[in-house]
Amino acid sequence: MSHTLAEEYLLLILDDESGKPLLDASSLHTAIAAAALTDLVYDGALEITESDGPVKKGRFARTGRAEPTDPLRLEILEKAHGRKPKDAVSAIGGMFSWSDRAKTLKEQLLERLAGEGVLEQQESKILGIFTSTRWTPGEVDVEREIRDRVRAVLVDGAEPDRHTATLISLLQATRVVRKVFPDADRTVIDQRAKNIAASDWAGTAVRQVIDEATAVMVTTYT
Fold first, then answer.
1. For 88, left (φ over 0), alpha (ψ -120 to 50), or beta?
2. R_g over Cα of the chain
3. Cβ–Cβ under 8 Å, residues 165 and 196
4. pLDDT of residue 190
5. CA angle centred on 134, ends 39 and 164, rounded to 5°
6. Which of 47, 73, 92, 214 makes an SS bond possible with 68, Cβ 3.0 to 4.6 Å?
7. How does the protein associate with the membrane (predicted)?
């Protein structure tokens, strides 16, 4: 059972006890937007242009290949086309976006993971009025493999594949590495994550997407 970068990121940043994310909603949605764009790049549906043409240099362009069949992912692809990475991230998941597609995608992914038995949705009432939703581990343990794979790179010094390097870069960008691995040596995992994020393990285009997502989050809180 394979999962997208966005799904793996979600599984890691959900606290197993509280069933809540380890970061604020705005940063989470920005990260989901970056992950969704990266997944489209990896699928071959999206690329960053290297020279001026129908789409200006340094902007996202649809390749016409591997078009997603999911309506929401197709909408994200369409929103990204012709935009700079930073603008695409903001349009899809920024807090100032008129249509926060990342929030909708997050909810869709959570429901899909619950349908696979990976997560369990639990709802409760606050003051008998407001509904609170928790997403706790289900019977199908997918998170363990993801966590072990990332830990092997951050703690044991294993060489990451492209997917794992991207996942670590996203964790680093959203400053949750320590929260995801609270029992590990903070100095070691922080430095390892920074080194991976600064390298080209994930590829130049993907690194640019994550760097731009980080810039969006910094701009939001400054």
1. alpha
2. 17
3. yes
4. 96
5. 30
6. 73
7. Peripheral membrane protein
Domain CATH code at residue 66? 1.10.3630.10
CA separation for the pair 222, 218 (Å, rounded): 6
Strand partners for 62: 46
Instruction: Give the C-alpha distances (Å, rounded to integers) separating 180 from 100, 150, 191.
Output: 25, 10, 15
pLDDT at position 9 is 96
CA distances in angstroms from 89 to 62, 92, 114, 194, listed in the order given: 16, 5, 26, 21
Which residue has 């199908």 as its token pair?
140
Quote the domain boundaries for residue 107: 5-220
Structural domain count, the chain: 1
* Contact (CB, 8 A) for 9 and 150: no
Q: What is the mean pLDDT of each run of 10 residues along the chain (222 residues)?
A: 88 93 90 91 91 90 90 90 90 63 87 93 74 86 95 96 93 95 96 92 78 70 43
d(CA 172, CA 52): 32
Stated pTM of the model: 0.88
- Write the secondary structure of 177-201 as one string of H (helix), E (strand) and C (coil): HHHHCCCCCHHHHHHHHHHHHHCCC
What torsion, rounded to 10 degrees, do the Cα atoms 59, 216, 91, 50 define? 10
What pLDDT, on the 0 to 100 scale, is given for residue 221? 43
Residue whose entry in the numeric block shows the structure tokens 């899909």: 112
**pLDDT (0 to 100) of residue 95:** 54
